[in-house]
Amino acid sequence: MAETPPELVREIGLRLAVIQRKVALAAEKSCRSASEVMILAVSKRQPLEVIEAAYACGLRTFGENYAEEAAEKITQLAHLDDIRWEMVGHVQSRKSALVAQHFVRVHSLDSLKLARKLDAVRSNRAALPPLEVLLQLNVSGEASKGGFLACESGQWEALLPVAQEVRSLGNLRLTGLMTMPPLFEDPEFSRPYFRRLREARDYLNEQIPELGLKELSMGTSADYSVAVEEGATIIRIGTELLGPRNYTKEF
Fold first, then answer.
1. Which CATH superfamily does the domain covering 6-241 fall into?
2. pLDDT above 50 for 115
């Protein structure tokens, strides 16, 4: 494989340093440590050399949106044996086998049907540990957003049997929640939605203490500082970290 361009490594390294400083400041505002926040590099529609450059900068966890595109990349980057791949996009039922085979975590678990499919496929992979999953919650009520409806606290009770069933599936491990708020020019407008996700997690933990949910996957290039202030443990950063995406290649 061709050598990773050093200028690309340098560019991504500089962007990463800026993001890390912003995360540290946001964490300090909420009396947290920056070490509690993982930067997930969202690499959808990015060429292999960009991922390799990010890897050279110390990043090890990458998020993908499309199962087939990701499977191709995972195969070609198999020599990076400590790289981790996480699914952040919607998972179609017919792609559940690809996802269960290649990923260590799914952020976008949006139905019990999908949970059962992932569990069934993962059970056939004896060498793999349980697949970590996050429940995707729709905290805005937008019809265009996927996930379990949770925009009002009165809807959270309906999440209890969902969480219980997912927890009972032996090949899955439920560790937290994920959301995507509406897109605003001012990231401050995202704050109530991030707070709602944190409160929903706390509610589930109070009602079912054995869940022990920790992870909050929230915040992107547009609003991650606010997300960290509101308790994010995973921020999903794409273009601000890896640069513009390549939409010309077909996967």
1. Alanine racemase (3.20.20.10)
2. yes
